C-alpha cells in the first residue's frame, strides 16, 4: 500500500486508495493449461499455449484449478441475505444503480436493512458483490456493486502493520544485544 500526504489546516493526513480488485480469472484451455495472450496489432488478440505457441480458439476460465465456462448474466438468484444497511460501506469504489421494486422498497424501509447477493454481467471476470438499500434522501432503491471488500483490504493492511511492529521489536532486541554485549561475543 502506498500512502500520500496532505496537510489540511493543522492535520497531517496520510491517504491510500482502496484497490478495486477488478481482476479476471486466468484464461485456460479445456485441460486447465493457462494460456498466454497475444495482443493483435491490426487484428483482435488471441490466446496461445505457452510451450507450443499453438493458437487456442475455445477458451475457459480457471476457477479453483478447474476449467469453467464463462459466467452467464445473472437473471435470477435465490442465494441472498438480508444485512445491515451499513454493509454497502464495505464495498470498494462501488458502481451505483437506480433500482425499482415497490415491494422490496417497502420491506427495506420498514426493516432498515439491505439485500445482499452476487451478480455477474457475463464474461470471464469475477462476479460482483451487490447490495440494494434505500437511499433516504430520495426514498428510492439503489444497488451498489463491487468486486472488492474494504474489510479484506483492512485485514491485509493491519496484518502488514503487525508484521512491521514485530520486525521492529525483533530489530530493537537484536540492536540491544549487539550494542550492549558485543565485547562479550567477540574475543580479540
Brief description of this entry?
The longest helix has 36 residues, at 150-185. It contains two helices and 15 strands. The protein has helices at residues 102-111, 150-185; strands at residues 4-8, 11-15, 27-28, 36-38, 46-48, 55-56, 60-63, 66-68, 71-73, 80-84, 95-99, 113-119, 121-123, 128-135, 140-146.
Describe this structure in words.
The protein has about 190 residues and is α+β, with helices and mostly antiparallel strands. Among the domains are: about 45 residues, no CATH class; about 80 residues, no CATH class. The protein is about 25% helix and about 35% strand. It is built from two helices and 15 strands. It has a five-stranded antiparallel beta sheet, covered by helices on one side. Strand 5 and strand 6 form a beta hairpin. The relative contact order is 0.14. About 5% of the residues have low confidence.
Order of helix and strand elements from N to C terminus:
EEEEEEEEEEEHEEEEH
The average pLDDT value, as a whole number, equals 83
Question: What's the helix count?
Answer: 2
Unreliably modeled segments: 176-180
Cα radius of gyration in angstroms: 25 Å
Give a topology summary.
Blueprint: E1 4-8, E2 11-15, E3 27-28, E4 36-38, E5 46-48, E6 55-56, E7 60-63, E8 66-68, E9 71-73, E10 80-84, E11 95-99, H1 102-111, E12 113-119, E13 121-123, E14 128-135, E15 140-146, H2 150-185
Antiparallel strand pairs: 1-2, 3-7, 4-5, 5-6, 7-8, 9-13, 10-12, 11-15, 12-14, 14-15
Amino acid at each position: 500500500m502506498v500512502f500520500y500526504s496532505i496537510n489540511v489546516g493543522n492535520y497531517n493526513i496520510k491517504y491510500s486508495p482502496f484497490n478495486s480488485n477488478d481482476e479476471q480469472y486466468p484464461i485456460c484451455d479445456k485441460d486447465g493449461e493457462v494460456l498466454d495472450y497475444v495482443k493483435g496489432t491490426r487484428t483482435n488478440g488471441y490466446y496461445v499455449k505457452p510451450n507450443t505457441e499453438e493458437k487456442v480458439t475455445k477458451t475457459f476460465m480457471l476457477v479453483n484449478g478447474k476449467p469453467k465456462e464463462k459466467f452467464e448474466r445473472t437473471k435470477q438468484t435465490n442465494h441472498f441475505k438480508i444485512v445491515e444497511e451499513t454493509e454497502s460501506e464495505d464495498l470498494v469504489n462501488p458502481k451505483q444503480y437506480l433500482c425499482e421494486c415497490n415491494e422490496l422498497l417497502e420491506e427495506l424501509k420498514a426493516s432498515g436493512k439491505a439485500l445482499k447477493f452476487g451478480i455477474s454481467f457475463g464474461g470471464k471476470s469475477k462476479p460482483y458483490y451487490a447490495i440494494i438499500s434505500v437511499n433516504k434522501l430520495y426514498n428510492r432503491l439503489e444497488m451498489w456493486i463491487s468486486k472488492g471488500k474494504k474489510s479484506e483490504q483492512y485485514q491485509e493492511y493491519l496484518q502488514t502493520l503487525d508484521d512491521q511492529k514485530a520486525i521492529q521489536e525483533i530489530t530493537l532486541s537484536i540492536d540491544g544485544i549487539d550494542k550492549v554485549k558485543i565485547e562479550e561475543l567477540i574475543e580479540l
